[in-house]
Each structure stands twice: as C-alpha cells, then as structure tokens.
Amino acid sequence: MRDVMEVLEQAMQGDHRMALATVVRTEGSAPRAVGTSMVISDDGTPTGSVSGGCVEASVLESAADVLATGVPELHRFGITDDDGLSIGLTCGGTIEIFIQPYAPASCPDFVALQQALRENLPCAMVTVFDGPPDLVGRSELVLQDADVSKLFDGGVVSPASVGAARDAVQKAIASETTLPVTLPSTDTEAFVSLLIDVYRPPRRLVIFGAIDFSASLAHLGSFLGFHVTVCDARAVFATAQRIPAAHEIVVDQPDRYLRQEIAQGKLARDSVICVLTHDAKFDIPVLDVALRHGFDYIGAMGSRRTARDRRDRLMSLGHTADTLASLRSPIGLDLSAGTAAETAVSIMSEVIAAKGRSSGLPLSQTTDPIHRSALPGEPARRQPLARSRDVICT
Hints:
single chain, alpha/beta, Rossmann fold, six-stranded mixed β-sheet, 16 strands, disordered C terminus
C-alpha cells in the first residue's frame, strides 16, 4: 500500500469514497509483488497498478461493484491451459487481488499508520482477505512486539489461531517481508487468510564525498525509496544547494561519522555505503570502519589502479582477502557509464542486484524465474476464494 499512500491520504482528508485493490497472493511468474496496490476513485479513476496493465480493466469493473455494495471481493487471475481466454495474465503466473472499500470510517488505523511512518516505526497493516464473512475486510495496524488485539474481536477464530497470527505478524515485521498467511479458525474445515503488509524505516544510503557524482546518486537513491545521507569533511562542498536530493547533509570526518552512527544503532546491516571521495586520507579510514562492521553493500569509486592501491592500504590495516571480498571496487556494474547520471544508474543497479543476490546479467542470458517467489512460507494447498470470480487467462 506504500505505493499509493499519498493518494489515499489526499482522498481520506476529503472523505472521498474509493476502493483499494491489493495483490494478496501470487504463484509462478507474476508481474507485481504481494502488497502492491491500486486505488480506484468513485468516478472510476485508477492510481497505481496491480498487474502492469493486463488485468486492470477487470479490477476496475469489480471495484465499481465493491463501491456500490460496500462488500469486499477476492479475485483470482491466472492461467489453466493454452486455450484460455485473452483476458488476464500473459506471463503464465497467478495473482489474487483483494478489493475493499476504503474510507475513514472503515479504516480507522490509517491515521495510526501515517503516524508510525512519520516516526519510522517498524509495523504491519494486517488485513483479513479471506475467511468468515464477518471478518473479511477487517484491518489492524500492528506495531513491533504488539498483539493482534482487535482484528478477531467477536469472530470465530480460536485462541490458538490468534496466537499463531501474532507470531506470523511479528515474524514478518522482523524479516521485513510482506506476505499472506492462512490459519485455521474454529474447526478443521474453516480458515482465515491474512495479508501482512509490512512497513519498515527506509533503507539508508550513506554517500561519503560531496562530489558531482554524489548529487546524481542521491537523486536516484531518493527516487528508489532510500533515506539518503551525504557526508563530507569539506563544508564548502557539503551543501544542500549542491546536493538537493539528499535528506541529510553532514559535515564531519567520514570515519568518525560512520562510527557514531554505528554506535547509536542508526545503521542496519543492509545500509548501503558508497565511498566517492577519491581521496585516500578520507576513503581508507571510512572503508576500514565499514568493512569491520560488515554492511551488506560497500562500494568505492575509483580506477582499477586506485582500487589496487586501496586494497593494499586496507591489507596493511589488517584486512584479508576474505574481509575485502565484500568491497565492490571499482563501484557499480559494467554499463559503460560516462555521465554522472549514468554512473548513478550503474551503482544503484549493483545495489539492487546485490540485495537480491542476482547476477546482474541480461535476463535474456539467464534461465531463473524473472519474479522470484516472495512467499517462502505459504502453503501450496489452494484455499477456496470468498466471493471470487475466476478468469481464465492466456
């Protein structure tokens, strides 16, 4: 839902009627990830996408029904054979989309979610998208280490399932993974399916060196949803005018600043560290700190000659071939980047590939699934769909 938060906030302030369509479950090669949402206003105007365009028309039609009746609906779009109709997914996967009315009266936790995001609190919006009719459509904001207290009030869900739901929500928040879970209710034939839509503080991108390349990298990092900090010891370069896209500009010695952020617990292991200073007296100390902490991504700009010299200097500080294996120097993928903007694309492409442990090769040269499953714990057993209308797709 994060991708349509701004539209929801504006609509909720004006008390407009709208429908929220969300991808709640996927199988095989699906075009959008679980948790991706689209908002449909009462005049039929859509914002966002749940499939990249292939089932949007059907979702808009169903959203009109939901707005007319006020009753949530769950729909499954997929493929059953090669002779299927042309409506739907051409990629061969299956997605389930939950469409619910969204208004201040029906979604009281939306304001709480906005507050949690402002305070950078890990949390999840938990929504019942399938199961007992009296529960379907209920949502609750759950903070880290909190109970699922209101979601099942008055419902037919056993205490054991409520406990299992709490454990699943907290596990999802801890792993920062948006996913669906299906739990039994009061008997072996009934079930309740939840979408655990996880929100975490933005991943941090820390750029050391306020050079021209830093401005482009900060712009692209901010566009990709990172919280961007630029640090340089030289106040004349480290200014908001030179790097307007950065969320923070810090004038400090890079290694000292990094040590302080680590000591205060402000940098998670998945923070991205990019050293662009081109000056050994700055980049060697800060790389030494970063490597000893073990961030997931550490990159340093420079020529291959500079990279060799940098490696020798770090080894003189006690680093080994094993500890230096995580250093990406020269930084970025081989894209023949020439401009600052192209270099930023090269760097952030490597960051994305590193997060997914991907090769960075052209997809035409690989055979792995394009969209990897984000639901490692989801059971393979298919559940019946409440108020669903299956569409056979090619």
